[in-house]
């Protein structure tokens, strides 16, 4: 059979039952578990070659939406006066505000102006539409005098 020297002697059950033997067996088991855990971690670890891949910075696009309400007070640079302390500075600020207001009003007025040709074209279209509506009204009035119109109560819209 097998050689007893190669197999070695095995410890008896009484010897294995002793505390110091159990501790040594637990240490061996812990070492094996630790090796297995390290092997699993090393296998699960991923390594990326970042030298080959160059990460591009994402292009961020910022979209600004205009304000729906105009700012009531524009900020102005320059000197200020407090409690009517410097009359000349206050007079200049008043003049600047007045000129800005006039410029805004002129801009609005120019935007609303119509040229003579545009005004004439608009008037012609208005006249032609009004003439057509007068003809329709006169046709309806003639028909209405011959027929009595029925008095209808509430009519449900479709």
Automatic annotation (TrEMBL):
Matches recorded under InterPro entries: MPP6
Coiled-coil segments on the chain, per record: none
GO annotation, biological process: maturation of 5.8S rRNA
Region: Disordered, residue numbers: 88-158
Compositional bias of kind Basic and acidic residues: 89-120
Listed PANTHER family: M-PHASE PHOSPHOPROTEIN 6
Entry protein name: M-phase phosphoprotein 6
Species: Mucor saturninus
